[in-house]
Design goal:
Blueprint (H helix, E strand, L loop, with lengths): L2 H9 L6 H5 L9 E4 L3 H12 L3 E8 L11 E7 L3 E6 L6 H9 L4 E4 L2 H8 L10 E3 H7 L7 H9 L19 H24 L14
Parallel strand pairs: 1-4, 2-5, 5-6
Antiparallel strand pairs: 2-3, 3-4
Length: 214
């Protein structure tokens, strides 16, 4: 690790308070967002991923409000350098493209709480995951005391991600503009956090874990 990266690591706060987080400027993803719904859009995804080695990955699930109630994921978000793709899991035609991505050992998939996401996704479609990187694990190994995407964005990226639509109904047929912006921002932030960890020298090596290991 370079002396500059070590010095920058030393200056970073290990946690952020609610008050400090609330005072940060709000940021949302401002690039291209594609809610994948046509064969042409699926082909665009595959073409984009051919030149990509890193994506941010997240999922959304319909919220449960009763004790014992649970739901399967409704949405998968994938952020590349050029766009964020939203896959509604009511569309079974997107399953092969997602399985390809999750099984691709060439592409790093960076996200938060990936074991939980992957376990739930396997109840929707089959895949054998490769090259997954849990950013919460990276944060802990780097000495950070908070591992959620919003806290990490505040600490490392200097902005606040709004939470407004997190508990909305992700199973709706047509996502609202607010849902689309929220979902895209979370996946984009995961990709940005990976790049920030890389800049800081916190990533000791790129993940090459065998299937299932996070």
């Amino acid at each position: 690790m370079s002396p500059a990266a070590t010095a920058e690591q030393d200056r970073i706060a290990r946690t952020i308070s609610r008050e400090d987080l609330a005072n940060l400027p709000i940021r949302r993803y401002e690039g291209r967002i594609c809610v994948v719904a046509t064969p042409e859009e699926l082909e665009e995804v595959r073409s984009d991923l051919q030149s990509e080695t890193l994506v941010g990955l997240d999922t959304e699930t319909r919220p449960a409000f009763r004790k014992g109630e649970s739901h399967l994921p409704c949405l998968v978000q994938v952020a590349t350098a050029r766009a964020v793709y939203l896959f509604q899991l009511r569309r079974t035609e997107v399953f092969p493209a997602l399985a390809e991505l999750l099984s691709d050992s060439r592409i790093i998939k960076a996200g938060i709480s990936l074991k939980d996401d992957l376990r739930a996704l396997k109840q929707v479609f089959a895949f054998s995951e490769q090259n997954m990187l849990d950013l919460g694990t990276v944060a802990r190994s780097g000495g950070l005391g908070q591992t959620g995407v919003r806290n990490l964005a505040g600490i490392l990226l200097g902005f606040r991600i709004p939470k407004g639509t997190k508990t909305s109904n992700w199973a709706v047929h047509e996502l609202s503009p607010a849902q689309i912006a929220y979902a895209a921002t979370d996946a984009w932030a995961c990709r940005e956090l990976y790049l920030r960890f890389e800049d800081l020298g916190i990533l000791r090596a790129k993940p090459t874990a065998p299937t299932g290991e996070l």
